[in-house]
Amino acid sequence: MLHTRVVYLRSAAILCLLIVIAIPELTVALKDVYVTVPTAVKRGDSAMLACNYDIENDTLYTVKWYKGRREFYRYTPKENPAMKIFKLPGINVESTLSNQSHVTLVSVPLSITGKFSCEVSADAPSFHTIIHTAEMEIVELPTQRPIITGIHSRYRLGDVINGNCSSDYSKPAANLTWWINEIPVLPNYIRTYEVQKHTEENLESSVLEINFIVTYQHFIKGRLKLKCTARIHEIYEQETEKLIEEDRPRILASGRSPDVNLYPFDQPGDGEFDDQNEQYLTHYNKNASASACRLDSKRAIKMAMVLFVFGLVLRLKMTDDNDNDDKNTNDNDNRNYTRIKISERMELNRNEMSKIEEWQPQRDFLTNENLIQNR
After folding, report:
1. How far is CA 241 from CA 27, 133, 146, in A?
2. Whole-number Cα distances in Å, 328 to 248, 331, 335, 336
3. Sheet containing 40-42: which strands, arranged edge to edge?
4. End-to-end CA distance of the chain
5. What is the pTM of this model?
6. What is the mean pLDDT of residues 80-102?
């Protein structure tokens, strides 16, 4: 019994092989079925879905289109009419632009995002069927360019640049990228936040933060260009730029460079927003104002101490100059007094000498007369 069954199976296999060899068209019938569907379509636009196949020597029986598992379009060449459209929420087929290989959807809504499938079947006797699937996303584009906030118009070497780029109200959320002088920013310069969902509008927002220390390599001829781009698939790309000037230290009259802390950053709002960027700063440092006040107080105290020391030194200098002038005056008076005394004394000595000279001859003459009398 078992031996008889084995022989029967072998005979059936040989018979099938002979049939395939005798009818070669069955082996090369329907093939190369694939679907061409737009990756993304803007909400409200039209979308053309293509079903490609090679029927070769066989005969086409039917082409069917599905959204998920539900059929919404069928084309059967042997029937009249050949085209049938089945109602499905959000699916609006334009019959004049549809046939056995294409189906056109108009005024597409966000709700039909998902998988679309095409099923192709050959006619008898094979009824060979192949199905292929592709995914299409309906996109809601942002109404404005990406917004840059928190970036000032002037920075110095060593300063920290910290700001945000945001793209609001789209579906899906836009992919954001920061650029410095047309070069993509390094990953350690940026911080990505979770996508914000707006449930009422069924839309999303994205935010990307940039944070880095300014070096001389960032400035090209005294300028640094920051750029943020927002992209959604291949149908949307917008960018916003921010030009930053290098704030170089001023040289004082004394030739000494001033303290860096004497020149604070620009105030927020100095060229910070353009016509379309009237939005709030996504991340705000609450301690910034207090830190600025403390820095201003320290600078004021430092300047007051410098002025006090300078005034004290100047006063001491003036006092020393006055003392030297008084000393020089006294020395001159003493020298004049000494000269007068010496002159008076010399005059007195000359008078005394003249008197002695007048008296000396008379004395000598008397002495001679006395000598003669004595003789």
Report:
1. 61, 41, 10
2. 51, 5, 11, 12
3. 40-42, 129-139, 114-122, 60-67, 70-75, 83-85
4. 216
5. 0.56
6. 94
Q: How far is the C-alpha of 329 from the C-alpha of 121, rounded, in Å?
A: 127
Helices and strands: H and E segment counts in the chain: 2, 19
Q: Amino acid identity, residue 288? A: A
Would you call 214 helix, strand, or coil by DSSP? coil
Per-residue model confidence as pLDDT tens digits over 4-15: 544 444 554 454
CA gap 311, 308 in Å, rounded = 5
Task: Please give the angle made by the CA atoms of 167, 171 and 174, to the nearest 5 degrees.
Answer: 35
Of 290, 288, 219, 294, the C-alpha closest to 261 is 294
In whole angstroms, what is the distance from residue 196 CA to residue 190 CA?
18
- Give dist(CA 165, CA 226) in Å, integer: 11
Half-sphere exposure for 338 (CA within 13 Å, toward CB): 6
Higher pLDDT, 6 or 301: 301
Euclidean distance between CA atoms 233 and 86, whole angstroms: 30
Are the C-beta atoms of 214 and 224 separated by less than 8 Å? yes
Q: CA triplet 234, 210, 198: central angle to 5 degrees?
A: 60
* Domains contained in the chain, CATH given: 20-139 (2.60.40.10), 147-300 (2.60.40.10)
